[in-house]
Amino acid sequence: MLSPFKGQTGLKRILNAAGYSWDGLRAAFGGEAAFRQLVLLNGVLLPLAFLLDVSRGERAILIAVCLLALIVELLNSAVEAAIDRISLERHPLSKNAKDMGSAAQAVALSMIALVWGVILLG
């Protein structure tokens, strides 16, 4: 059986998707301190990427890794919300899921430091 939420097509689907995305960004910004911290970090690093004397390709990579960390945080927050929706009871599988999301974010943040370091110091 198809989901009743999958019935929209065309422009209506695009408008609905944009609204859901906006709602997700608002929820992340309002409810996730880590997301707000990453937005602040991006608020510093993204303009800096445009001020640095680097090639267009290097600038694109500097920007991409910063945005990737935001994406990873959104996915991590979504996993945590889904796990909490299922049950607030402590369970090893829930802990693993949340820990893996946290590890993904640690890798994304390490990638920012590594890429920025290689480009600026390389």
Describe this structure in words.
The chain has about 120 residues and is mainly alpha-helical. It has a single domain (about 35-120), classed as Helix Hairpins (Orthogonal Bundle). It has 4 helices and no strands. The chain has helices at about 10-30, 35-50, 55-85, 90-120. Helix 1 (about 10-30) crosses helix 2. The chain starts with 9 loop residues before the first helix and ends with a helix. The mean pLDDT is about 95. This is Diacylglycerol kinase. It holds the Pfam family DAGK_prokar. Catalyzes the ATP-dependent phosphorylation of sn-l,2-diacylglycerol (DAG) to phosphatidic acid. Involved in the recycling of diacylglycerol produced as a by-product during membrane-derived oligosaccharide (MDO) biosynthesis.
For the structure shown, list the relevant keywords.
single chain; 4 helices; mainly alpha; Helix Hairpins; 122 residues
What is the CATH class name?
A: Mainly Alpha
Query: How many β-strand stretches?
Result: 0
Give the overall shape.
globular
Largest sheet: none
How would you state the average pLDDT, rounded?
A: 94
* Poorly predicted runs: none
Can you name the CATH architecture?
A: Orthogonal Bundle
Strand content: under 5%
Helix share, percent: over 70%
Task: Please indicate the count of domains.
Answer: 1
C-alpha-based Rg, rounded? 18 Å
Number of helices: 4
Structural category is mainly alpha
Kindly report how far apart the N and C termini lie: 55 Å
- CATH names the topology as Helix Hairpins
The run of helices and strands is: HHHH
Subcellular location: Cell inner membrane
Transmembrane segments: 34-54, 61-83, 103-121
Organism: Pseudomonas linyingensis
Catalytic activity: a 1,2-diacyl-sn-glycerol + ATP = a 1,2-diacyl-sn-glycero-3-phosphate + ADP + H(+)
